[in-house]
C-alpha cells in the first residue's frame, strides 16, 4: 500500500498510511510488476504476460449513465469518455469509435454496490471505478464507475470526483495496463484529483512508454488515422459548466421549479418554501 501510494515503505501504520487508506482509489488490486529472482538465480514474472487487444479499431458505448450527478448531462459524459479514450489513441495505433448498438468492445456503466462482477462498490469514497483487461473473457475492456460518487467536470477537487481523470485511468486498464507505483503516472491506483482540461491533457512519459511497449508508437495523428466507419463525426464539444450552479439536491418535498405552477417563494433559514395554487398576494 505504501509503495503504490507514493509513501516511504516503512511497514509502519503511521498517520500518512492511515490517510492513504481513506483515499479514494480504483478497485482493481495492486500487483507488483517486478521480476523477483527464483531459487535458480533467474528472474521470473510475478504477473502473467501483458495482455493486449489483437485488433486496433475498438468500439465503445455508454450502456448506463450516472443518475446521481447534478451537473453532468449525457452529452457531457459522452464527450468526456471520448476525450479520455483519445488520450490513449493519440500516442498508440489504437482507434476508438462510439457505436449505438448493443454490442461494443468497451462497455461503460455507472452502477452501484454489488453489480455481479466480483468488484462491488462501497458508496461515496473508497473504491470509485474499475475496468477489465483485454484478457478477461466476458468483460474484456468494460469500465464501471460507482454511481454513488459525485462525478464532476472542471470543478474544484472538493466538489467530487473528476470523471475525466478517473476515465483516463480506467481506460488504461481496458487496453492492458496494470497499476504502477510511478509518482507521475495516471495509472497509480489512488485518486490524484483533476488532471486539467481534457482538450489539453497529455499522458505522462511513464504511461506513454508502457502503452508503446504493448502496441508500439502511433505513426501520425492525421485525420487519415480515423477508423473508417460510416458514422465517423467531428469531436464532441465540451462547454464550460456554469460556475454558480448549485450541486445540492432539491428537498424531497420541494416541487419541480420547471414544471410546477406556484405564485409565492420565500427563503426561510436558507431553505426555499413554495406556495402552490394560492389566489392571494404575497
From TrEMBL:
Zn(2+) 1 binds at residues 115, 117, 130, 144. Residues 221-231 have a biased composition (Basic and acidic residues). A motif (Cysteine switch) lies at residues 24-31. PANTHER family: MATRIX METALLOPROTEINASE (PTHR10201), MATRIX METALLOPROTEINASE-17 (PTHR10201:SF330). This is Peptidase metallopeptidase domain-containing protein. It comes from Aldrovandia affinis. Belongs to the peptidase M10A family. GO terms for cellular component: extracellular matrix; extracellular space; plasma membrane; side of membrane. GO terms for biological process: collagen catabolic process; extracellular matrix organization; proteolysis. One of its GO terms (molecular function) is metalloendopeptidase activity. Ca(2+) 1 binds at residues 147, 149. Residues 49-217 form the Peptidase metallopeptidase domain. Ca(2+) 3 binds at residues 122-123, 146, 149. Its cofactor is Ca(2+); Zn(2+). It is a lipid-anchor; GPI-anchor. It is found in: Cell membrane. Keywords: Calcium, Cell membrane, Disulfide bond, Glycoprotein, GPI-anchor, Hydrolase, Lipoprotein, Membrane, Metal-binding, Metalloprotease, Protease, Repeat, Zinc, Zymogen. It comes from the Eukaryota.
Amino acid at each position: 500500500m505504501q509503495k503504490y501510494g507514493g509513501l516511504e515503505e516503512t511497514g509502519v501504520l503511521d498517520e500518512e498510511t492511515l490517510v492513504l487508506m481513506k483515499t479514494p482509489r480504483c478497485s482493481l488490486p495492486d500487483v507488483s510488476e517486478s521480476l523477483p529472482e527464483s531459487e535458480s538465480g533467474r528472474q521470473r514474472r510475478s504477473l502473467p504476460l501483458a495482455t493486449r487487444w489483437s485488433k486496433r479499431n475498438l468500439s465503445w458505448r455508454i450502456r448506463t449513465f450516472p443518475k446521481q450527478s447534478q451537473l453532468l448531462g449525457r452529452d457531457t459524459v459522452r464527450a468526456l469518455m471520448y476525450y479520455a479514450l483519445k488520450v490513449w489513441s493519440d500516442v498508440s495505433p489504437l482507434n476508438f469509435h462510439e457505436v449505438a448498438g448493443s454490442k461494443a468492445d468497451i462497455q461503460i456503466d455507472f452502477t452501484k454496490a454489488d453489480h455481479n462482477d466480483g468488484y462491488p462498490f462501497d458508496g461515496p469514497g473508497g473504491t470509485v471505478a474499475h475496468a477489465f483487461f483485454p484478457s478477461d473473457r466476458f468483460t474484456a475492456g468494460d469500465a464501471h464507475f460507482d454511481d454513488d460518487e459525485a462525478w464532476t467536470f472542471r470543478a474544484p477537487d472538493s466538489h467530487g470526483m473528476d470523471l475525466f481523470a478517473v476515465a483516463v485511468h480506467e481506460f488504461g486498464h481496458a487496453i492492458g495496463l496494470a497499476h504502477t507505483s510511478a509518482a507521475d503516472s495516471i495509472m497509480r491506483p489512488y485518486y490524484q484529483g483533476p488532471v486539467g482540461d481534457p482538450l489539453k491533457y497529455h499522458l505522462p512519459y511513464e504511461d506513454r512508454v508502457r502503452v508503446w511497449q504493448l502496441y508500439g508508437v502511433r505513426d501520425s495523428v492525421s485525420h487519415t488515422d480515423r477508423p473508417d466507419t460510416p458514422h465517423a463525426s467531428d469531436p464532441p464539444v465540451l462547454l464550460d459548466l456554469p460556475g454558480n450552479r448549485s450541486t445540492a439536491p432539491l428537498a424531497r418535498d420541494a416541487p419541480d421549479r420547471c414544471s410546477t405552477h406556484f405564485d409565492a417563494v420565500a427563503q426561510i433559514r436558507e431553505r426555499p418554501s413554495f406556495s402552490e395554487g394560492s389566489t392571494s398576494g404575497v
